[in-house]
Design a protein that fits this description.
Radius of gyration: 25 Å
GO molecular function: RNA binding
Number of helices: 8
Helix content: 40-55%
Number of domains: 2
Strand content: 5-15%
Protein name: GAF domain-containing protein
Domain ANTAR: 176-237
Low-confidence stretches: 1-12
Number of strands: 5
Oligomer: single chain
Largest sheet: 5 strands, antiparallel
Distance between the termini: 73 Å
Keywords: Transcription, Transcription regulation
Order of helices and strands: HHEEHEHEEHHHH
Mean pLDDT: 84
CATH class of the largest domain: Alpha Beta
CATH superfamily of the largest domain: GAF domain
CATH topology of the largest domain: Beta-Lactamase
InterPro entries: ANTAR, GAF, GAF-like_dom_sf, GAF_ANTAR, WH-like_DNA-bd_sf
Strand order of the largest sheet: 2-1-5-4-3
CATH architecture of the largest domain: 2-Layer Sandwich
Shape: elongated
């Protein structure tokens, strides 16, 4: 598929092309551990990989936090940003839990203020598909075209596929974020613990490294010796104490 040729013949997109798109999306997000970074990658991949789509955005609602936004083109980020008002295709898709299609914004009356901004930014067609991430995050992926009536049933299908696949990938990113946060909390607790904290201080002094690196050294030793971390720390402190006594 020639990604540089934006022809309005998306209905010809076959199973192999769709699979390639989802594979590219997976490759781009599989190892990402930051949710905002994942959203940025998602919208750029979608923009570049879908013929007829000139820009892509994502509107994210997170429990207890302001709405988030990602845009493949920063000049059009306001199309996905709820600070300009909640009456948008994205919010309609989220509230109704269904895909919203606006193939020609010149004939669109559902979101007057948003439609005026979109036309002013050179957008003439839009599709928004709801995305379920987890119990705390929902959103919508938004596909935009610079020409009216370019977005076809084929684009609706790919929007649905993107939404389903992106939801799974973004849920995995959120899991990695939570795991990283738990690991940071555990590290902080370990560094405050007496003997482990002392051992980390010894390694920092010996190697001239920061605390996280020293703790990683201690963990590696515990794994290699197959003994608890605290026991490794105690052995190190005893060894250092004996050296000082001698």
């Amino acid at each position: 598929m020639n990604l540089d040729t934006r022809e309005p013949v998306f209905d010809t997109l076959g199973a192999l092309e769709a699979a390639a798109l989802l594979r590219e999306l997976t490759a781009g997000l599989i190892a990402v551990a930051d949710f905002d970074d994942a959203l940025t990658r998602l919208v750029r991949i979608a923009r570049d990989a879908v013929p007829g789509v000139d820009c892509c955005g994502f509107t994210a609602l997170r429990a207890g936090e302001p709405a988030g936004v990602a845009a493949s083109d920063t000049g059009r980020a306001e199309l996905d940003d709820l600070r300009h008002g909640p009456e948008t295709p994205a919010m309609t898709a989220i509230h109704r839990r269904e895909m919203i299609i606006a193939p020609d914004l010149d004939r669109e009356a559902r979101w007057p203020a948003w439609t005026g901004r979109a036309r002013g930014l050179g957008v003439r067609g839009a599709i928004s598909a709801p995305v379920d991430v987890d119990e705390q995050v929902i959103g919508a992926i938004n596909l935009y075209a610079e020409s009216a009536d370019v977005l076809s049933p084929g684009h609706q299908l790919v929007a649905m596929l993107l939404a389903e696949h992106a939801g799974l990938l973004l849920a995995a990113v959120r899991d990695r974020e939570r795991q990283a946060a738990r690991a940071d909390q555990l590290d902080s607790a370990l560094l405050e613990e007496g003997v482990v904290g002392q051992a980390v201080g010894v390694i920092m002094t010996q190697r001239g490294c920061p605390a996280p690196e020293a703790l990683a050294v201690l963990r590696t030793a515990a794994s290699s010796l197959d003994i608890p971390l605290r026991e490794v720390a105690e052995r190190l402190i005893r060894t250092v104490s004996r050296s000082r006594d001698n």
